[in-house]
Design a protein that fits this description.
- By secondary structure, the chain is mainly α.
- Among the domains are: 62-161, no CATH class; 162-278, Receptor-associated Protein.
- The protein is built from eleven helices and no strands.
- α3 crosses α5 (131-180), α7 runs antiparallel to α8 and α8 (217-226) packs antiparallel against α9 (231-246).
- The longest helix is centred in the first third of the chain and has 55 residues, at 2-56.
- It is flat, with a radius of gyration of 39 Å.
Length: 311
Amino acid sequence: MIIGTTVAAAVFFAGCALAFVTIEGVVVERARVNRNMRRLKNIDLKATDLRRKELAKPFAGRVAWPLLRFVGRFAKKFTPAGVVERLAHDLVYAGSPVAWDAERILATKLVAAAGGFLVPSLGGPLLGMAPVRGIVGGVVFAILGYYAPEWALRSRAGTRQAAIQRALPDAMDLLSITVEAGLGFDAAVKRVAGQARGPLGEELHRVLQEMQIGKPRAQALRSLADRTSVPELQSFVLAMVQADSFGIAIGQVLHVQAREMRLKRRQRAEERAQKIPVKILMPLLGCVFPSLFVVILGPAGIQIYRSMLSN
């Protein structure tokens, strides 16, 4: 009797254990399947999110800029190295605009030239213009479109360098005063960079950043001279490098440089004043004098004409 009870209890517990193991296996397998399904769902959602983010970008970011990049690479292969180097220098002088390089400038030139040629050539006949005139206009606009981006880049570079040249004498005065007051050169440059506005302040901030990451002062100043085409700034960099090399007092060098820059600024102002009579000559001859002649000689001409008719 006892043996039968024991066997029954053992079978019962074995059945319970087997049922528990079976149920546990099913639950674990189902949990694993659900976990994998959630992962696949998350992957699909991520892919959908990436696709939505890509499609949410503007047309310029998805199509225009990649197309310009491809055209720029193609144009660079057939462009002389000197032209590419000149464009790179102009970009540096213009302040290195974000996302612009020589390849993109070349691509813009080609696209503008193609658009300038196709619009008059194809649109002229639709507007009733003779085909020859449309082709001639297309050639003219193609030439203008090809050179327009480069002209705009040079104009921006010239404007930026002129701003640096105008702000340089005052910045050198402040730099000389701060150094003579006891500040070190790096601290004085930081003070002047905080006070200066415009391109000169940006260039001085860049010099400070280069020195902070470990670049020697002389090399940072030479890089400043390479990024600008202002003769006074290049002369200042050369004087500072030589003073740093030979151990000359920086305060005296800065004082001399500031005085020379003030003198050159006054000479430039006098030169521009001397050019004013020559520049206003053509407006006088083309606009002012004809009006004066009409006002002064008009009544006399009318009287002469009436007297001739009366006779």
